[in-house]
Design a protein that fits this description.
InterPro entries: AAA+_ATPase, ABC_carbohydrate_import_ATPase, ABC_transporter-like_ATP-bd, P-loop_NTPase. It comes from Prosthecomicrobium pneumaticum. GO terms for molecular function: ATP binding; ATP hydrolysis activity. The chain has helices at residues 42-49, 72-77, 95-99, 117-130, 146-159, 176-191, 203-209, 232-240, and strands spanning 4-13, 16-26, 31-35, 57-62, 65-67, 80-83, 106-107, 114-115, 164-168, 195-199, 212-217, 220-226. A hairpin with a 2-residue loop joins strand 4 (57-62) and strand 5. Helix content is 32%, strand content 27%. The protein has a 6-stranded mixed sheet with strand order 6-9-10-3-11-12, with helices on both faces. A 4-stranded antiparallel sheet has the order 2-1-4-5, covered by helices on one side. The protein has one domain: P-loop containing nucleotide triphosphate hydrolases (Rossmann fold, 3-Layer(aba) Sandwich), CATH 3.40.50.300.
């Protein structure tokens, strides 16, 4: 059974049709690349899955069960986490503090509870070890590389034991070495049975880590193919419209 099913998802903003009848199924531990030109509908689709937007039509199912998200917190309660392009990290805080931001561990009784820093450092260290990242819990985020920042954002998704992680252009503005680090983080999520939707313009990244690629063009799905059954040239043609559908 698919962990996530989108059935005929549509979205319009007034007279503008942003998405038109999109159907995608995502299996446990599967990495799906979501590609398309600017304005293709990728971000709108991800925001619907994440609970930021309500679809104008269609149905979302999690583990075969119909769901309806009115707020992002409801998507998180159903095991969906998002790593946005800007990562939404606080530069002046440590890695551990960012991982637990808004979900801090406290100790004590009643109104006298205080933050349990040691517990947060320990758990953050475990998460970074699971992800095989060199990021350290006490390091300040402002001193980190792009790859380490991604590790912090991904560790935050593991804190809630997410089943589905949506990643928006995670390798857009980092060095070649850091790209390899982030792709390895995605592989770690896959190894742990997490399903990943990877929005990316970078063809080598998609063909390196994804099992399937879904291509959107002008709000319509024009391809949904195993990586082994397509090529960068075909995907480029589908994105630009040189190839109508595959």
């Amino acid at each position: 059974m698919a962990i996530l099913e989108l059935n005929q998802i549509s979205k319009h903003f007034g007279a503008i049709q942003a998405l038109n009848g999109i159907s995608i199924a995502l299996e446990e531990g599967e990495v799906v690349g979501l590609m398309g030109d600017n304005g293709a509908g990728k971000s709108t689709l991800v925001k619907i899955i994440a609970g930021n937007f309500h679809p104008s039509g269609g149905e979302i199912r999690i583990g075969g069960r119909p769901v309806q998200f009115n707020r992002p917190v409801e998507a998180r309660e159903n095991g969906i986490e998002v790593v946005y392009q800007d990562l939404a990290l606080c530069d002046n805080l440590t890695a551990a503090a960012n991982v637990f931001l808004g979900r801090e561990v406290r100790k004590g009784f009643g109104p006298l509870k205080i933050l349990d820093y040691n517990a947060m450092y320990r758990r953050a260290a475990e998460l970074f070890k699971e992800l095989k990242s060199e990021t350290r819990p006490r390091d300040l985020v402002r001193q980190m590389s792009g790859g380490q920042r991604q590790a912090v954002a991904i560790a935050r998704t593991r804190l809630s034991d997410a089943k589905i992680v949506l990643m928006d252009e995670p390798t857009a503005a980092i060095s070649v070495r850091q790209v390899a680090e982030v792709l390895n983080l995605i592989r770690r999520l896959k190894d742990q049975g997490v399903a990943v939707v990877l929005i990316s313009h970078r063809m080598p990244d998609v063909f390196s880590v994804c099992d399937r690629v879904v291509v959107l063009r002008r709000g319509t799905k024009v391809a949904d193919k195993p990586i082994a059954a397509t090529s960068p040239e075909e995907v480029t043609g589908l994105i630009t419209g040189a190839i109508q559908e595959a």
